[in-house]
Amino acid sequence: MTDWNRLVIEEIDKRQDELIELCSRLIQFPSENPPGDSRPISKFIIDYLKQEGIDTAIHESGETMWNLISTIGSPSPDRHLLYCGHTDVVPAGDLSRWDVPPYSGLVKDGFIHGRGATDMKGGLAGLIFVTGLFARLGVPLAGNLSLFIVPDEETGGDLGVPWVLDRGLIAGTAAVIAEPSHPQNPTIGQKGSCWFEFTVEGTPGHGSLAPLNGESAILKAARAIQALQKLWELKPDIPAEVQDIINISKEFALVRNPGKDVSAVHDHVTINIGTISGGTKVNVVADRCTVQVDTRVPFGLDYRDVLAEAKRLLLEEGIDVELKPFGFQGNANWTSDSEDIVRLLVESITDVSQKEAYGVLQWASSDARHFRKHGIPVLQYGPSELAGIHSFNERVPVDQVIQAAKVYALTALKYLGTTNANK
């Protein structure tokens, strides 16, 4: 009987140059969202899988938005693992501020460089490569493994994971998302989100007479922004069942960010003023100013209560405006570390790295919340250089891309099993 665990890991080692080349090729597609055209990179992935004998179903959620589903293995009523990743990346921004062209996919000094390298084409390459490798080797999986690739995550994800799950186009018993994480610490839960915007009205006037003439909407918005900082003071009623994982995550944050203690984000509302747009001309008192706010909500608070508190704080400042929710809206959520998929992935990290591994919470949001909404246990694990996410000079360590691919492979083999395995 074949020891598939050993064989697959050996094959990944032998073919690691192919894996790194695949990652580089994925980065070379400028799949920025916005504007959000996934067709070129999707066609590349479809052709890659076809060469391995794998068919892909295309589900168009928009003219340029392709959701891809490719399934291998054997149908099972209780074992269907979803490998999930997104093809879209945030815009590269000012190209002059990149040391390496953002869509070069350059492999140099132990890193693969470019926009999306960490978020999340390094992990996506691992999922695609492992799925193709299973097919190439004829691994007799005892359940289904579905590669589930979505085009829309960076702008809220409405046309990606939830679009597919809500329509019943795929169902699974567990999922692994290749979002970036620490190499020893997958993320098994996340804070909630409450994004909103508001527009403050003012009275225009000649700029030479300010502040004696007119009422500046920008100054009113500044007062509103300052008032909203008090959202940090909201006290969550943290459920007992998540207190331990919050404590573990706070300790992890201290270790991961030496010299910069960000651990308090796990039990506080964070407030980021993302954009401000106001005024018509430098010598005109601004008659209107729009502010967009990103708050992240801890366990023990409802995102709607955060919105209500924001409204109260503004009224306290004498600012009566409509708060318009948009983008991410939802409460904190997690997958228990007692779930098979969590236990087996953590175990696989230890097997590959020979180091301790354990799950932690993240302070951002992702597609994981949609899987949990549908009752699918899910966690996130992927290669990363976390400092470069959404920034200039993004890159991903080559060794982490290889480690992640091995972890994906072992997790699938352990979770699904094989029909003739002794491991």
Topology as H/E string?
HHHEEEEEHEHEEEHHEEHEEHEHEEH
User: Would you identify the regions where 5 or more consecutive residues have pLDDT less than 50?
Assistant: none
Total domain modules: 2
- Count every beta strand, where a strand is a DSSP E run of 2 or more residues: 16
Strand order of the largest sheet: 1-2-6-3-7-15
For the record, the CATH class of the largest domain is Alpha Beta
- Estimate percent helicity: 25-40%
The number of helices is 11
- The overall average pLDDT, rounded, is 96
Cofactor: Zn(2+); Co(2+)
Protein name: Acetylornithine deacetylase/succinyl-diaminopimelate desuccinylase
GO molecular function: hydrolase activity; metal ion binding
Family: Belongs to the peptidase M20A family.
Quick overview:
With 423 residues, the chain is an alpha/beta fold.
Structure report:
The chain is 34% helix and 21% strand. The chain has 423 residues and is an alpha/beta fold. It has two domains: 270 residues, 3-Layer(aba) Sandwich (Aminopeptidase), CATH 3.40.630.10; 105 residues, Alpha-Beta Plaits, CATH 3.30.70.360. The protein has a six-stranded mixed beta sheet with strand order 1-2-6-3-7-15. The chain has a four-stranded antiparallel beta sheet with strand order 10-11-9-12. Helix 1 packs antiparallel against helix 11, helix 2 packs across helix 4 and helix 4 crosses helix 11. Belongs to the peptidase M20A family. It comes from Brevibacillus borstelensis AK1. This is Acetylornithine deacetylase/succinyl-diaminopimelate desuccinylase.
